[in-house]
Amino acid sequence: MNYIVGIDIGGTNVRTALLDEERNIIDKFKIKNEVEKGPEYNLDKVIDYININWKSKGIKGIGIGCPGPLNIKEGKILKAPNLKGWENFSVKGYIEEKTSLKTEINNDANVAGLAEAVVGSAKGAESVFYITVSTGVGGALIINNKIVNGANSSAGEICNLIINEDKYSHSGLVQGGLEGQCSGPNIARKASDILGKKIETPEVFELYKNNNREIKKLVDELCDNLAKGISNVISVADPEVIVLGGSVILYNTSLIPIIEEKVKDKILNPDTLDIRVAEIGDDAGLKGASLLI
């Protein structure tokens, strides 16, 4: 049997898994990502583990999910906010050199979306758009089980999708952009402004569940903003299935019917709308990365 290695590079941890051809996880390895020590220091730990423990089993290749922006064709990190000091580093080239194994890299949201399209909640669908709402807002367009990368490795990057006239700019993104309005930190930012005190995202949704009037209005606005983003995606890509994931969604699935009804009011074909919840969870990045091979 041929095995595949999936690597999920995050700002906090680097996770690695050995998977079989059906994408069942056979073994896992995780290290703390000491970002400030640079990519070689951290990746060498992963490479050593692969070479010592897994390589003799017969590995077909290595797939990697990594925060963007990336140059996917060159396998290079450009300027990921959570990987300071890793700029212009060729992850693909470095790992291929150290392991002699075919290696592919793609954006972390893209590989999570690929996992949901191939072995997750949208399995069997011809076209899938995956949206993650968490620390950031990301997206991925999957057609016939293949990621659509775009000319500049940025297809599906809905973080910058303009959905209202708000003048707030998040991390240099466009004013009124989806991430600046709907990500976890920005939900907390808006709630803190309304309440006049600093609160975190989980507290916002506790207040919502307890029927706080001001927060209910804020969450309804959040659902409307997400619905605008989803309806814009549908207008352009017309996917068969929309998959919603990320911590904001997965911890608050009661919002999905609300979002769904708002989307139906904004699209041409409401009767065919198919919104599903991501089902793979924490392993989506590992499974999706392995599917690059």
Description of the structure:
It is a single chain. The chain is an alpha/beta fold and 293 residues long. 37% of the residues lie in helices and 22% in strands. The chain is built from ten helices and twelve strands. It has helices at residues 39-54, 91-99, 108-118, 178-182, 184-195, 201-209, 213-237, 247-250, 255-264, 284-290; strands spanning 3-9, 13-19, 25-32, 59-66, 70-71, 76-77, 103-107, 127-133, 137-143, 146-147, 241-245, 275-277. The strands form three sheets. Strands 3-2-1-4-7 form a five-stranded mixed beta sheet, sandwiched between helices. Strands 10-9-8-11-12 form a five-stranded mixed beta sheet, with helices on both faces. Strand 5 (70-71) and strand 6 (76-77) form a beta hairpin. Helix 7 packs across helix 9. The protein is globular.
Task: Give a quick summary of the entry.
The chain has 293 residues and is α/β, with parallel strands linked by helices.
Strands, total number: 12
How widely separated are the two ends? 15 Å
Strand order of the largest sheet: 3-2-1-4-7
Order of helices and strands: EEEHEEEHEHEEEHHHHEHHEH
Q: Which band does the percent of strand residues land in?
A: 15-25%
Shape: globular
| Major sheet details | 5 strands, mixed
Task: Please estimate the helix content.
Answer: 25-40%
Structural class: alpha/beta
The whole-angstrom Rg is 19 Å
Tally the helices: what do you get? Answer: 10
Stretches where pLDDT is under 50 for at least 5 consecutive residues are none
Mean pLDDT: 95
